[in-house]
Each structure stands twice: as structure tokens, then as C-alpha cells.
Amino acid sequence: KSFLFKFSDQELTFITDHGVFSKERVDYGTTVLLVNCAMEPRYKNVLDIGCGYGPIGISLAKTYPHIHFDMTDVNLRALDLAKRNSLLNKVKNVSIFKSNIYENINRKYDCILTNPPIRAGLNVVYEIFAKAIDFLEDNGAFYTVIQKKQGARRAQVKLTQIFNNCETICSVKGYYVFKSIKNI
After folding, report:
1. What confidence score (pLDDT) does residue 20 get?
2. What is the pTM of this model?
3. pLDDT for res 173
4. DSSP 3-state assignment of 163?
5. How far is C-alpha 87 from the chain's CA centre?
6. If the chain, 184 residues long, is cut into consecutive pieces of 10 residues, what is the mean pLDDT of each piece?
């Protein structure tokens, strides 16, 4: 199965399959995150954690060819699709590899993005939040999107506890994009 997705001035094609999140289209939460995360000119390395078949990392990599995107997931099927989608969309500034949360991450990033795997449970989501600070450069940004009904307010409290800050970038149709900065 494949579909077209327009982001910025790009038209991308994504191949999906059973066993991956949002296989019919790029889900609304991901779209809200993509539109509202600011890729600053100083960013050189960005991590897309829980990348699925690649809509966040590939869309941003296509739009920002000067930034390198590491894309990780625990789902091998999703990673295979993400690799195929990066080739299909002629995106070369990505590295796609398996990592259960941060277990295979050994560097720091200017920005970490996630549409977190809510179905994996809040313990997993909060671990992604809590450990992000250890993998961000000083003044690095962490972006996430979460629905109100899936605990957006609790997520905002958790991010504020971890980073001592959490800005609500937007709230659209029950979806919230939060940004936290690793302060030095």
C-alpha cells in the first residue's frame, strides 16, 4: 500500500503495510507535529525516535537537506519500510536503525522529535521523555505531540519536571505540540 503526502513544498510517497501505525495515511498528530516543529538553522543532527515507516524524519529530511536525521524504531517491519521510503523519496541525509528507546543511541542531538507510541503505555512514553535530556546538546529542543484524551496535560507536567520548561507550541483539535529545551 502506498499514498502521497504533501509537506512544505514537497510531495512524498510512503509505502506502508500491516503492523505499522497509521498505515492508510500520515496521521493527524504527526502532521500537526511536522507543521509546528521549527528546524532551526543551527541544527545539524536530529533524532526521530519511534519513526515508524518514516513520515516525520523523511518529510523533514527532504525539506532540510543540510540536517542529518537519525530515525529509530523497535519495530523491524517499520524500519524496513522507513528504509524503502527514504530510497523512494531520494532522501540521503538519514540513518535508520533499530533502537528500543535510547539503547542504541550513542551521541547527542540538536533536536529530538517523537510522536510517542501511546499504545506501548505511558511508562514507555515517559521514559522517552525522561531520557531525552541525556541525548540533547545544550540548548537542544525536544518536541512531542500528544492528544488531550491521551494525557496531554500529564505529559506537559512530566516534561516540565524533566526540563524545567515546557512550551505549548500549538493546540489543534485536541492535539498538543510541546517543546522543551535543555537549558545549560
Report:
1. 59
2. 0.93
3. 94
4. helix
5. 19
6. 77 76 74 92 96 95 96 94 96 97 96 90 92 97 94 94 97 96 87
Determine contact, residues 131/72, Cβ cutoff 8 Å.
no
- Are 111 and 141 a contacting pair, CB within 8 Å? yes
Contact 108, 140 (CB under 8 A): yes
Per-position DSSP letters for 21-49, written without gaps between them: TT-SS--HHHHHHHHH----TT--EEEEE
Per-residue cell: 150: 491521551
**Phi-psi group of 21: left, alpha or beta (phi > 0 → left; psi -120 to 50 → alpha; rest → beta):** beta
Provide φ and ψ at 117, rounded to 5°: -75, 80
Q: Rounded to an integer, what distance in angstroms lies between the CA atom of residue 55 and that of residue 61?
A: 10
Long-range contacts of 5-11 (CB under 8 A, 24+ apart): 5/55, 5/59, 7/31, 7/34, 7/59, 7/62, 7/63, 8/59, 8/63, 9/63, 10/59, 10/62, 10/63
Antiparallel, parallel or unpaired: β 109-114 and 45-49: parallel
